[in-house]
Amino acid sequence: MHIRKQRLLTPGPTPLYPPAMHAMMASDIHHRTQDFRNVYAAALADLKEVLGTSNDVLMFAASGTGGMDASVSNLFSRGDKVIVCCAGKFGERWVEIAKAYGLDATVLKVEYGDAVSVSAVRAALDAEPSTKGVFVQASETSTGAAHDIQGMAAAVAATDAILVVDGITGIGTMPLDIDGWGIDVLIGGSQKSFMIPPGLAFLSVSKKAWTLSETATLPHFYFDLKKEKKNADKGESTWTPATSLILALGEALKYVKGLGMANLVANAQLLALAARAACTELGLELFAPGSPGSSVTSVKAPKGMDSSVIVKELRTRFGAIITNGQGSMKGRIFRIAHLGYFDFWDLFAMVAGLETILYANGIPVEFGRGVAAVQRVYAGAAIQLPVAVG
Fold it and tell me: pLDDT (tens digit, 9 = 90+) per residue, 19-44?
């Protein structure tokens, strides 16, 4: 009651992997030495292995938005026709980037909480055969909804366009078969499922995307994919790298490789399933029930209650930091994260705290009911009960 440990329960930044933090203490290494070249080359190779791709993987000292910017400025020209899937705050970011670079964008916009359908993408491609790119979020973290990337990839693969996927919160929370599905560009960030601080963006780039880069004319300087690939092949970054973060990434990738990407995804999906069960048991309404993702569970605040109250009181009473809604959803929903270094103890505590906050604000709550729902999901997945005989 008097001691409150801070617990980061947000969809980015996420809780940090302790060995990765220890690795950062060796960051006085010089980045133009063979020692660091070995670290850098290993990190890129491990990223390729963890992402499960034979495509080139490049890395920049930037947030994930830097990777989004690079995918546009390196692969397109002013006036190019593109399709932008817009299902929330981060879909709106694709719209803003496309506008900033002068692309001719057809925006497939849906209500917050919904997902853009594969059929809508296919119809837009049929209507404009000269489309050069389709932009989408794998996981729209502002709402908790997920897109059907496999279906979209199949639709795009039949055309000359490329599929550019913001996988910043999708990686590690949902299957993303880059090579098998034909994802041309997949963008990730360090502070999500890779369990280290913000500051690294990475992209996988397909041969089809590289071909498009040959005719692209948009200006770029820092985010130069060709230059970055040339230097990465030599084990170096073009510009001064985020040395400490790359050291941390190396340790985090060892952990993910040992765990297995499929198990990292399964962990997020099971936590998301348990969170949805708990909130439903408490009489709360899920925000994106039609296409829920596993990076976050978005929940509507009880009628007459501002979600900001839940966010604030979880922090002040328990030191637990969760996230409010974004944009027009602020005050209407709260979001519980599941990606990266989260386990069931985190969720048990989160749900118990949520029950207490609801009770303190006059919402009828039967203590332990939400926690019991989490326990049932855990027990169903992890406890092998003996089979009765006779």
Answer: 999 999 999 999 999 999 999 999 99
Phi, psi of 176 (to 5 degrees): -140, 90
Rounded CA gap, 270 and 277, in Å? 11
Query: Hey, what amino acid is at 319?
Result: G
**Tokens 């002068």 map to which residue?**
102
Task: Give pLDDT tens digits for 154-165.
Answer: 999 999 999 999
Q: What's the topology of domain 18-259? A: Aspartate Aminotransferase; domain 2 (3.40.640)
Q: Are 271 and 293 in contact (CB under 8 A)?
A: no
Q: What is the pLDDT of residues 255-288, one digit of tens each?
A: 999 999 999 999 999 999 999 999 999 999 999 9
Residue 232: CA atoms inside 13 Å, Cβ hemisphere, count? Answer: 20
- Yes or no: domain 7-13+260-382 corresponds to CATH 3.30.700.20: no
Q: Are 131 and 81 in contact (CB under 8 A)?
A: yes
Domain ranges of the chain: 7-13+260-382, 18-259
Three-point CA angle 185, 221, 176, nearest 5°: 10
Residue 172: what are its φ and ψ, rounded to 5°? 85, 0
CB neighbours of residue 248 within 10 Å: 30
Nearest to 265, CA basis, from 378, 186, 175, 139 = 175
Q: How far is CA 95 from CA 43, 105, 128, 137, in A?
A: 31, 8, 18, 12
